[in-house]
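Consider the tokenized backbone below.
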């Protein structure tokens, strides 16, 4: 779990750093279209996260089917991204808590649930455990 969280922290820094570089950095490359800059940053961060998880966190579980693995990884990330807004929606519209504290608590809870969903999804579907190799049995003759 520590490796997973470390990879996530690095991907988060890549996401925030690249977004700020593209929007506010030298030349303001995508300053006029910040939403696109955010999409680019998120895609690069997802790739960094996949590589980190593939080669470090779940290195003993990775498959040789990289495209399928990356597709599953992206699908789980997309699903998990919907969790935080859903928690916020429930907090505001079902519970009726509309203050800044409630919104931030909902954000943290949503991130926590999303992280758990990602970890579980990666472990079960993206990087499933391989069956242990069958032990070598030697025939003994009387």
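A designed sequence for it:
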């Amino acid at each position: 779990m520590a490796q997973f969280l470390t990879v996530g922290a690095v991907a988060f820094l890549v996401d925030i750093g690249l977004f700020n570089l593209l929007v506010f950095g030298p030349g303001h490359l995508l300053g006029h279209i910040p939403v696109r800059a955010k999409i680019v940053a998120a895609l690069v961060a997802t790739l960094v996260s996949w590589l980190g998880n593939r080669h470090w966190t779940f290195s003993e579980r990775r498959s040789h089917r990289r495209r399928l693995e990356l597709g599953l990884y992206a699908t789980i990330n997309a699903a998990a991204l919907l969790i935080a807004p859903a928690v916020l929606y429930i907090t505001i519209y079902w519970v009726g808590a509309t203050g800044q504290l409630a919104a931030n608590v909902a954000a943290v809870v949503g991130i926590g649930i999303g992280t758990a969903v990602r970890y579980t999804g990666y472990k079960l579907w993206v990087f499933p455990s391989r069956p242990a190799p069958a032990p070598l049995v030697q025939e003994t003759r009387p």
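The mean pLDDT is 83.
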